[in-house]
Amino acid sequence: MELSAFTNRPVILLSNVTGLLVRVKASIATFILKKDDMSYILPEIDFKYWADKNPYYSSDTLSKEVKIGLTNASKAGLVSPYLPTIASNGDLVNLILKKIAAFDFAQGSDDQILLIFDLIQSWGGAMGKWPFVKPKGNPPRPNDQKFSVGYFKAIQALQRMKTDGVTEDSISHVNELICELPMVSESFSTKHLQFWSIGLDIKPRLAIYDTRMILLMAATNQGSKSHRHTYLQFLEALDSASLKERLPPEIVERSLFAFSKAYFPNAALQITAEASITHDRQAAVALETWWLSS
């Protein structure tokens, strides 16, 4: 018997009269997460092929985007001492997870809390800059004394998930808390959710829901270009793909990101001139067709 990666509930395999296997997901998501009768899906791609091709986890490269992110976060003063130890994106990922695993919720300092925030924003690339640069002359991350209080409140809510379990309400609550921080949007709040859920070993993992994922969800679930499925609907789609592909949900998200980045710019599903790869090109063309006709 399999377990759902999102709900840790059983997946029962039944044989019908033709001998085919029908997957029936006995999942709490069916009752808690779904607000309607729809099942949410993701593009049908070769997830295993793309799983190790997400550059943000590369142990070989410190990408331009992450370099810019580190430069921006360094403005707050905590990241700079660690720059000599970060030779690749993978080094930064490992540093973030090490700091989270070592964080003492009873005695952790404001600087320890804020360093983790700064490192995650750095990893997210150039668009993580806003808490460090805007508004000009008084950006909130270096200047707002309540910033660490707000972030600590959010990570305390994450810690409670480890003991009390992950529910629709707890996911929504912690996501809202992070989005309440000045200049932090959902595309970055969910980066924090992912790293803390991995570092604290919260199951299920809470995956990243950024612009690329929003567009892929809209394209494969008959939405419009402007339609934004909720974070919970995205997690349900990840759970379904995770069961089908026998991969952890966070790896499914990483694969989707790698596929999207190989073919598309950040905010559109139009194949770039530089996209010479052929793997899953049919899926990319189908997504582009939807984009051009919507």
Overview of this structure, please?
With 294 residues, this protein is mainly α. It has one domain (2-293). The chain has helices spanning 29-32, 47-50, 64-73, 89-102, 110-123, 130-133, 140-143, 147-164, 168-179, 186-199, 211-220, 231-245, 249-263, 281-293; strands spanning 2-3, 10-15, 21-25. A 3-stranded antiparallel β-sheet has the order 1-2-3, with no helix packed on it. β1 (2-3) and β2 (10-15) form a beta hairpin. The protein is globular, with a radius of gyration of 20 Å. Mean pLDDT is 87; it is low at 1-35.
Task: Produce the secondary structure layout.
Elements lengths: L1 E2 L6 E6 L5 E5 L3 H4 L14 H4 L13 H10 L15 H14 L7 H14 L6 H4 L6 H4 L3 H18 L3 H12 L6 H14 L11 H10 L10 H15 L3 H15 L17 H13 L1
Antiparallel strand pairs: 1-2, 2-3
Helix pairs in contact: 3-5, 4-5, 4-10, 5-8, 8-9, 9-10, 12-13
Task: State the main characteristics.
294 residues; mainly alpha; 14 helices; 51% helix; disordered N terminus
Alpha carbon gap, first and last residue: 41 Å
> Quick one: biggest sheet?
3 strands, antiparallel
Query: How do the strands of the widest beta sheet line up side by side?
Result: 1-2-3
Measured by DSSP, the beta-strand proportion falls in: under 5%
Number-wise, the strands total 3
Q: What's the shape? A: globular
Number of helices: 14
Radius of gyration: 20 Å
Mean pLDDT: 87
Helicity range: 40-55%
Q: Please write the string of helix (H) and strand (E) elements.
A: EEEHHHHHHHHHHHHHH
Low-confidence stretches: 1-35
Number of domains: 1
Structural class: mainly alpha
